[in-house]
Amino acid sequence: MTALAVTVLVVAKAPEPGRAKTRLAATVGDRVAADIAAAALLDTLDAVAAAPVVARVVALTGDLDAAARAAELRQRLESFTVISQRGNDFADRLANAHADSGSRSGGLPVLQIGMDTPQVTAELLADCAGRLLDAPAILGLADDGGWWALGVGVPAMAECLRAVPMSRPDTGELTLKALRDNGIDVTEVQQLADVDVVDDIAVVRDACRPASRFARVTRAAGL
Question: What is the pTM of this model?
Answer without folding.
Answer: 0.96
